[in-house]
């Protein structure tokens, strides 16, 4: 904003103060207006008046723009430089015309074809340059896509690269010539030309500022016009437009009757060229399409030809059936009243965000805190780090990693913070005093008096608090808004400059692997990326990093998604999103499977570019069907079968991308192969699915497929995720302690043929019966641990009464794993896998799943002693 105001003001001062000097200079040079003797007598008074006043406007614009950018420390980008190039280039054409007129003292300067040729030359160079200089999102200053009719988009590049670029250049030349000559036709009516240009170019100050503001703050009410119009540098265009307007206003002062200086063709062509360039680069060139235009054509990613699968040996070409119908033809991609939302083959969408799901209305409504409206009005305006958070009374529930990050952030903002916790670790409790936050440690079965006395205007809740917790029920009754840490982080994401894009990952299983792999791929592609969220690093810590990020890959649990709004100032607008899979989990927290799935579905709300879903999981497909997304978002499927257009999948053991390439109906791009993954222990079916999902997210960010292949050459799973602990006497010992629910355990068991299964823990109310029944044929035996052993014992008795089953009833947690390992060793035979895949949470006997896996590994090594083979065993079969 400072640069915008400074550029306009300095340009105004420049032309107001220095135009008299240029008038005297032009008189000395003989650059005066020529008037024919046979012309109207009223015009004779103009003879000799200084002309070529456009030089003053051009110089004022150039000097004020660059000076404003330098004084404010604002980086100079490609788009405004192109506007200045057009302005100077056409100004030179006009100068030649004016110079010839004044030198020869005649009304004819350049010939008609000479002038047009000059305009076309400048416009052609501009067109070529405007397709260069992509930013980190792949946006170039101009686009080859236009729309001649509301629903008939035209992309020149679809006609072939050479023909497309040629037609694009012709189109730009036509626009520039028409606009610049349109201003030039007012020759002799400088007040009309200048005044109307002030209004037209002034509109681009508003347009550029508006587009930039929607990109920066998420466009809560209007829509993300930065993406909607594919504008590369909207605010910088506004800054250069302000410099032009300032120069025009200053010039107009000296052009009022009796005029002291005229524009000349130098000025009229320069102004017209600048106007055309602003229109082209802001995507408002006529004939402009209505705001329903696509966000971005993600099908054109300029993929290289190598690695494309055509006629792969043993493969009967990719499917040659007619093009499949879009999702809307299958009942997919619809919101309220069944109107289309997503279409996998093209990008038209309705723009903006609306409350389209009536069932969500009650969730979006809240009452005023303590029967007042001011609190909510203030909270609605808190959508930036730079907003006024000072003195805001906030209660933070919980003092875990997330709770402390929230308290620390709010204290830094100057809020009045009170942390309320049942348990407060000593180190964090001490730090609260340092950062200036209060602490109440109490029994939270009832509302502490200190919390009521604090009269919070806002509550920020840690993920572990159940929706029916007494403090949350009290907040609802009192009308106090409740945010999660994710909403708070979204509102504060602009602390260190332009906010990072967010990629959201959720699902019952595979979240952490997908987040880590996606982040690793993006980092290899040169992006500054932070994996954060439920993975262990609070998002609030990531958004406060002083160096900033290009993209955050955010792992979201169902707890965090539960507290996220889908509309309003706190609603996330992610670049891409994925729900990897859905199986009943955390039912004790959500209350029902439907509530759990509803929370998970929030991940897709307002997605801008790619909604990635699991083709093999109908629930995720339904989520995409019901999602309310941004205009232009694409539905991208992934699965283990042959991919269709807009999918990623597997063909003859080759992982393929048929979503992010031009000719996705006939070709595919190879990412890696199952044999290559097997060498690195990544070939289990659920891991292949995670790899495809991560690849889809990375490809939505224009990452080259070769980078994905190279990353997979070295990528390793995190600990406790199908981690090979030892291989001795033909028996492999594998730690998959991260399998904390039946869905994860199912994928883990399916990867092996003969298993001794270590199972059990805290089942969280889920049904284990079907899991046991499914995998009985592959079991050599089972060892049951944990507190919920009765349910497991009954399941094994029903479905495998003859199977060797041992129970570990150790009161001492330290003896659970040594006893379990000894029991498993007594059952296992050569060729077997002893698999820790508990299908349950760990908190009944261990601090977390990592501690459970670590103690398992220690017990295995203690039991085997020197027998374990130190070499890494090959991974499981796909």
Question: Could you write a compact summary of the structure shown?
Answer:
The protein is of the alpha/beta class and 878 residues long. Helices cover 43% and strands 12% of the residues.
Task: Describe the structure in your own words.
The protein has about 900 residues and is of the alpha/beta class. The strands form four sheets. It has a ten-stranded mixed sheet, with helices on both faces. It has a six-stranded mixed sheet with strand order 18-19-23-20-21-22, with helices on both faces. Helix content is about 45%, strand content about 10%. The radius of gyration is 33 Å and the shape is elongated. It contains 30 helices and 23 strands. α3 packs antiparallel against α9 and α4 packs across α5.
Amino-to-carboxy terminus distance = 56 Å
Low-confidence stretches: 38-45, 147-153, 215-229, 287-373, 866-878
Main sheet properties:
10 strands, mixed
Q: Into which percent range does the helicity of residues fall?
A: 40-55%
| Number of H/I helices | 30
Strand order of the largest sheet: 3-17-16-15-14-13-12-9-11-10
Count of extended strands:
23
